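User: I'm preparing a small set of examples for a lab meeting where we compare how different chains pack in three dimensions. I only have the primary sequence for this one, and I'd like the structure in token form so I can line it up with the others. Please keep the answer compact; I'll paste it straight into my notes.
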Amino acid sequence: MNGRSYKNSPLFVLAAFALLLGACTETMTEVDDAHAEPEGVHLVMGGNVFATYDGETQTWTGELEGEVGQETPHITVRFVDHEGDPIPIDDDLYLDVQVQDESIAEFGQDTPGEFGGHLHGEMAGETGVTFSLMHGAVGAGHPDFVTQPAPAHIR
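Assistant: Understood. Below is the structure token output for the 155-residue chain.
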């Protein structure tokens, strides 16, 4: 042997750098494709959007309404991208809904974590409802996107 190591060869260093760069690019692409970022929310009842949330301005257009002692028809909660198109919902994502004052209204989901449910009117008044896109196991995940409270009026 001549004492020269292939590890010090410029060709080896360039090849190693190219492999590393290729691996980084692949990983970055996988991360970008793996998780769509929501930019808003659409609340849908009977096929019609009745309230929207703009994540950029953090404002709601429209509101939730209900009657004391009544339950609304099913409300579907859609997380949407900048164009208003629904984002893909993976198996490890779920919906968490929090009502500020549950003496006024409650939000019931038929299945924990489902992307919808029913607003139940408990007593006349106003409250807010926050919708969170959660990542992880239902009940133990972390939020990926959280709205400001949507206005809810119970008559």
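A couple of notes for your slides: Helices lie at 10-34. The first strand starts at residue 40 and ends at 45.

User: Perfect, thanks.
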